[in-house]
Specification:
Elements (H helix, E strand, L loop, with lengths): L11 H18 L9 H4 L1 H7 L4 H19 L8 H26 L6 H17 L24 H26 L4 H18 L8 E9 L13 H17 L4 E3 L13 H11 L3 E8 L3 E7 L5 E6 L20 E3 L2 E7 L6 H9 L4 E6 L9 H16 L2 E6 L4 E4 L5 E5 L5 E9 L5 H4 L4 H23 L1 H24 L8 H15 L9 H25 L13 H46 L6 H21 L6 H15 L3
Parallel strand pairs: 1-2, 2-3, 7-8, 8-9
Antiparallel strand pairs: 1-12, 3-4, 4-5, 6-7, 9-10, 10-11
Helix pairs in contact: 1-3, 1-4, 3-7, 4-5, 5-6, 6-7, 6-14, 7-8, 7-12, 9-10, 11-12, 15-16, 15-18, 16-18, 17-19, 17-20, 18-19, 18-20, 19-20
């Protein structure tokens, strides 16, 4: 990321070692190994390895580092099959590559610029990957500091993204000093800024609560495979009622059940609500249950068993919650013992959801989850750490009720008051603060994230324009190649929202336009057979693994046409598949490769595949993201796009059928 010199003369295998080392150090820093202090130097080897590289070279090295980091961080995904783990890892590594390439582009060969280009780019990338329909905020750097009493207070001012910025700034300073072999004035200033921010956070007074309540988290420890067992439903309910009574005997005024703890539609089951109220004996109960739809929800019951409010999960787990309907925007619920904000499972990883609940008046946060599917892997520990950050960011107590663990009570400063270990049944109760003034993060600290993205864009646009001016003709062809077929497809999506393949006419128009714009770069006669065979094999294996997982969850999966019109269905998806691949991996890939090399070609063609499917179920978007990565690799190998069409059509048809389960 700087002018040639220093480490730029090192052999390529040393750069590779640096990338691999950073990935491994990051794995060790997160919950599981939990060596959080390592994160302060974890990215130094990668930053040293990137010294002197152009954006394309930096992307490759960053991608390798990301494969190691996310491959280790997400090992718990292997419980759902190796294909799921491989695809998610491959997809998330793109963000690492984007960070490396983006920082190199912003620094523009200026070594001192690394000190601000690296933190700015890192935060921008973390923000982008955490939002939108494909948001996956797992592995934010700030999460590693959930047990650090010196750093954690910073969350109340700048949130998890801000803590990540401080961490990466320290890494950048260390890397800069090693590369320059001296402490320059810019490095000293950057170090002083990081130290000042850390000191300000460490000396910041803790949150002040307006009142206190005894709260309880119930952990029934029911194997998730048995939660839908009708024969065991009465026994499960009896256990919940007993634990509810125990919580009330411990003085609990607010009692929280785990996600989908009640094996019934609690909204319609008045007798069950009354039974819960009798066991709660005057306490408020936040009960996880499925509602009709089905919907994954929390029902907030008053002392008399009446429904005070309900919250339906809004951030659904792609593929993992097929068949579940997404909830609409819902605010916190007022109860006799305080205003309760709710998040269900995966939602606790999203800072904005809980920040918004507190901004709307929540005095305490209830997080309902079921991590039983992850066994004793690092998944439950990583998931639980997010709840600590949410408490510290918002200055609100958090009641985390987990089916099999880890249930936790977390104070407004992020201190864990108590927890129930994995694989045990228990009731956790304690006196906890409720309410209080809003933290700086809730008021204005969240602005750091969008400002970082805006700052990165404002910095990189001039450099991008300079590069494009040098390749004005190639850039113009790329713009036309993106826009002409893209507009045709978007028009089709608007006129047929939620549809599968576009109309045959639209597909043919896109195909014709892409062939013309690609100008002979979409077909390789020698590579077409390899392209078709490998892509069909990869797609087939993925669909088989995915279907097996759905069947395991109890879904009856039919991947065929809903009306039995096989010929029309197959023809429509086949022509669409060929058209979309000739456009994305053919014309767009070739034109983008001319402008910015294969990294730009792979990222742009994959991103466009997601954009033209916006508005469809999450599963469709993730499918386009993951297959875009795989098909880009095949395209690089075979130099052919036409052979990918059959696999695209087959995959899109099957995934549309699976997505319809929702």
């Amino acid at each position: 990321m700087s002018r040639p010199g220093g480490l730029t003369a090192k052999a390529g295998h040393l750069r590779l070692f640096g990338a691999l080392a950073s990935g491994l150090l990051l794995v060790l820093a997160f919950p599981g190994p939990d060596l959080g202090w390592l994160v302060w130097i974890a990215l130094v080897p990668l930053l040293l390895a990137l010294d002197g590289l152009n954006p394309g070279q930096a992307f490759r090295l960053g991608y390798v580092s990301g494969l190691v980091a996310y491959g280790g961080l997400l090992t718990w995904i292997t419980l759902f099959g190796l294909p799921a783990w491989f695809l998610l890892t491959a997809g998330m590594a793109i963000y690492f590559g984007a960070f490396a390439a983006g920082a190199a582009l912003v620094a523009g060969g200026r070594r001192r610029a690394v000190l601000w280009a690296v933190p700015l780019t890192w935060v921008a990338v973390e923000v982008v990957r955490s939002g939108g329909p494909l948001g996956f905020p797992w592995g934010l750097l700030g999460l590693t500091q959930y047990r650090n009493p010196i750093i954690l207070p910073l969350a109340s001012v700048i949130g998890a993204f801000g803590i990540g910025a401080v961490i990466i700034l320290v890494n950048a300073v260390v890397a800069h000093v090693i590369t320059a072999r001296r402490v320059s004035l810019p490095a000293a200033v950057a170090a002083l800024i990081a130290a000042a921010v850390i000191l300000a956070g460490a000396t910041r007074p803790g949150p002040i609560a307006s009142s206190q309540r005894i709260v309880a988290a119930i952990q029934p420890n029911v194997p998730p495979q048995l939660k839908g067992d009708a024969l065991g439903a009465s026994q499960l309910i009896s256990g919940l009622l007993e634990q509810t009574a125990q919580a009330r005997r411990d003085g609990a005024e607010i009692i929280v059940y785990p996600e989908t703890a009640v094996p019934a539609d609690l909204g319609a089951a008045s007798d069950l609500r009354s039974a819960i109220a009798r066991s709660a004996d005057g306490a408020v109960v936040v009960a996880g249950a499925f509602l009709s739809g089905p919907r994954n929800a929390a029902i907030i019951l008053g002392p008399d068993g009446s429904v005070l409010g309900r919250y339906v999960k809004r951030r659904l787990v792609p593929f993992g919650e097929a068949g579940v309907q997404r909830g609409s925007d819902a605010g916190p619920v007022a109860t006799p013992d305080g205003v309760v904000g709710v998040a269900i499972c995966y939602e606790s990883a999203f800072p904005d959801l809980i920040r918004a609940a507190v901004a709307e008046g929540a005095g305490i946060i209830a997080i309902l989850t079921n991590d039983g599917w992850f066994g004793t892997s690092a998944g439950p520990a990583q998931h639980a750490a997010h709840a600590v950050l949410r408490a510290a960011e918002t200055g609100r107590s958090v009641i985390r009720a987990a089916n099999t663990g880890t249930s936790m009570l977390i104070a407004p400063d992020g201190a864990v008051v108590g927890q129930v270990p994995l694989g045990t049944a228990n009731v956790l109760a304690a006196l906890m603060p409720v309410g209080g003034p809003l933290t700086s993060y809730v008021r204005w600290g969240w602005l750091l994230a969008p400002l970082a993205v805006a700052g990165w864009i404002a910095t990189v646009v001039p450099a991008g324009f300079t590069h494009l001016r040098r390749q004005s003709i190639a850039a113009a062809w790329l713009a036309a190649t993106v826009l002409i077929p893209g507009v045709l497809l978007l028009i089709a999506r608007v006129t047929n929202p939620g549809g599968g393949a576009t109309s045959l006419l639209t597909s043919l128009l896109v195909l014709a336009a892409s062939v013309w714009l690609g100008r002979g770069r979409v077909l390789n006669r020698k590579g077409i057979v390899r392209s078709a065979v490998v892509s069909l094999a990869a797609t087939g294996l993925l669909l088989i693994a995915m279907r097996a997982a759905y069947v395991q969850y109890g879904f009856q999966v039919d991947m065929g046409p809903p009306d039995g019109h096989w010929w029309q269905w197959a023809t429509g998806y086949l022509v669409y598949g060929i058209a979309i691949e000739v456009w994305l991996r053919g014309a767009v890939f070739a034109r983008a490769e001319q402008v910015g090399g294969w990294p730009l070609a792979a990222v742009l063609s994959t991103a466009l595949g997601v954009v033209v499917h916006l508005g469809q179920p999450q599963e469709v978007l993730f499918w386009n993201l993951l297959t875009g990565i795989i098909f880009s690799a095949i395209r690089l190998w075979t130099r052919d796009a036409v052979g990918l069409g059959a696999a695209r059509g087959l995959g899109d048809a099957a995934i549309a059928a699976l997505a319809n389960l929702r």
